[in-house]
Amino acid sequence: MDYSIKIGGEAGQGIQTIGEGLGRIFARSGYHVFSHQDYESRVRGGHNFYQLRFANHPLAASRQNMDILVALDRESITRHGQELTPKGRVIYDAAALDFSSDDPAFLAIPFEKLAQEQGGSKIMANTVATGAVLGMLGLDLDLLLKLIAALFHKKGDAVVEANRNAARAGYQFAREHGDGVSFEVAAAEGQQRLLIGGIEAIGLGALASGCTFYAAYPMTPSTGILNFLASKGKEYGVMVEQAEDEIAAINMALGASYAGLRAMTGTSGGGFALMAEGLSLAGMTETPIVIAMGQRPGPATGLPTRTEQGDLGFLLTAGHGEFPRVILAPGTAEQAFYLTNKAFELAEKYQIPVFLLFDTYLGDSQWTYDGLDLKQVSYHDYRLRGEAFGEQQDYKRYALTDSGISPLGVPGDAAHLVVVDSDEHDEEGHIIEDNATRNQMVEKRLFRKLPLIKGEMAPPKLYGEQEPRVVLVGWGSTYGVMKEAVDALAESEKIAMLHFSEIFPLPEMAPFDYRAFLDQVPLAVCIELNATGQFSRLLRAETGFEFKAVIHKYDGRPFTVEELIGEIHGHLKDI
To answer: What are the pLDDT digits (tens) for 254-309?
Structure first.
């Protein structure tokens, strides 16, 4: 059992409300869920959609065809009507859309009329639509009624009951008038599942890692992290600051980190362009910081609400001068949670900037899991504080050590002076001009730390055949769609997936020689959501391996499973 539902309409019509409500109901029923959104950069109007898929087996990507299309405007029918499966159905409000169809695949449901009659307001039309979808699927309405009570309890019993009546009306109408509907929804196995999005996972990962300061200027797709942490600020003791711009944001975070806090900032490409000087400041002063970098299509404003993997090259070389950095790129919400934790650990341990590189698709998508294992979360306080700091006999902020890691004392926790400077400096932090000290500091910051950092990078994940004829290689948010493509093609091809989520510096090849593995595969295909193959260039520069086949997509939309499989078939003739 595997069904896909798309809710289409204009911004402001409650598309996300319907989609997220259905997702929660399916997850609480015990089904597996995957969802993603597509929306324009406007508050009202335009054409948006929310697409979700639920099944009795794990899901990781969206499919091309829909079983139910909830059309809240006529453009949804024009754009997506051809995406219906053979047994698919379109539900719509004929009066609101001034449209009717005799096609048996179309079921007219008076969303607004039922909302007015049963709920007392047209604003509850999306509640009617949600009930109607459950009615078509033959699922229990009780979970929706409980969800309504949880969502609207602060607005009083009257509002709760009005929405419940609207949901019942939509459900009953679909059951009575949905002649020929043949959806067979298998009973869910197990208990309710955790439904979590990429943005929430990053925010939770930051909280679990002890982040106590977050500064940012709002910019899609990273704004959700700012909102999430602000909503949890009082509960978890996090200071959240909406800065006046991105320059201020990164410098605030660096100041908080210098003062002894675990600090983070977030932005997108245009905002990060303003942070470049602050990044170099972190490199010179060896101040730990985590930067959540949300990718969207550029250059300039580009497509501000769409998705792309176009900023990897930017992060590899951003900032002036030479200093170590780490780039982590999660492919799922689960990876986002754990890699956010790893970002904080690496930043604090090695006193470096660490990037959490994601894109709009990953940030806005949702997955279901049985839960997140907090035992896998690490927390080590690498700073000198209080009595331990005071016991230091000869504290030097930039002491030369074999590891390149100098003692990191918290200012004011002891009598020791903590000096940092954006100029090149000596072991105590004071400005220098001589070449000998300069050489020592570059070697300390860069050459001594890098081998240790590289040793902490996890190898890429191999999924599928151990000795494949075809291997799909990707990074970041392409994880799910590549995995589903491998599963779909496994019956006819010896195929595997190699996914990188810890991408700079590239992992050592001692535990898994991925270069040798790729050399032995007849066809290796690199899949990226950009035009120039930024990861394939990185892999070639660092390992010498060059892909003979690539699949690039740069229209601002993610791959669907069928779309990627079609592209892969185009390359299979080459082996």
So the answer is: 999 999 999 999 999 999 999 999 999 999 999 999 999 999 999 999 999 999 99
Q: Please list, in sequence order, all residues whose beta carbon lies within 8 angstroms of the beta carbon of residue 23, skipping any fewer than 6 positions away.
A: 33, 35, 52, 54, 195, 366
Q: Give the Å distances, CA to CA, from 113 to 108, 136, 492.
A: 12, 19, 51
The mean pLDDT value for 524-537 works out to 98
Determine the 3-state secondary structure of 526 from DSSP. Answer: strand
- Has residue 374 got a pLDDT over 90? yes
d(CA 264, CA 348): 12
Place of tokens 């949300």: 294
Among residues 201, 158, 377, 370, the alpha carbon closest in space to that of 292 is found at: 201
- Distance between CA atoms of residues 29 and 23, nearest Å: 10
What confidence category does residue 217 fall into, taking pLDDT thresholds of 50, 70 and 90?
A: very high
Measured between alpha carbons, how far is 82 from 100 in angstroms, rounded to an integer? 16
**DSSP code of 179?**
T
In angstroms, how far is CA 349 from the centroid of its own chain? 25
Burial (0-12, 13-18, 19+ Cβ within 10 Å), 99:
middle
Q: Which helix (H) or strand (E) holds 26?
A: helix 15-28
Nearest to 69 by CA among 52, 46, 45: 52
Model confidence pLDDT, tens digit, residues 62-117: 999 999 999 999 999 999 999 999 999 999 999 999 999 999 999 999 999 999 99
**Cβ-based neighbours of 333, under 8 Å, separated by 6 or more:** 196, 197, 198, 200, 201, 362, 365, 366, 367, 369
Using an 8 Å Cβ cutoff, are 202 and 194 in contact?
A: no
* Of the listed ranges 39-43, 123-127, 282-286, 412-416, the one predicted with least confidence: 39-43
Identify the DSSP state of 116. I
Least confident of 137-141, 329-333, 458-462, 475-479: 137-141
Q: What is the mean pLDDT of residues 155-184?
A: 90
CB atoms within 10 A of CB 116: 17
CA 243 to chain centre: 23
Of 334, 445, 344, 467, residue with least CA distance to 400? 445
Q: Which domains does the chain have, with CATH numbers?
A: 2-177 (3.40.920.10), 196-374 (3.40.50.970), 383-456 (no CATH), 461-572 (3.40.50.920)
Phi then psi for residue 431, to 5 deg, are -60, 140
Determine the pLDDT at residue 178.
81
Whether the bond between 468 and the residue before it is cis, its omega within 30 degrees of 0, is: no
Pairing of strands 263-268, 289-295: parallel
Return all residues near 317 (Cβ < 8 A) that are at least 6 apart.
Answer: none
Cα–Cα nearest to 93, from 72, 76, 78: 72
Nearest Cα to Cα of residue 288 among 259, 268, 311, 314: 259
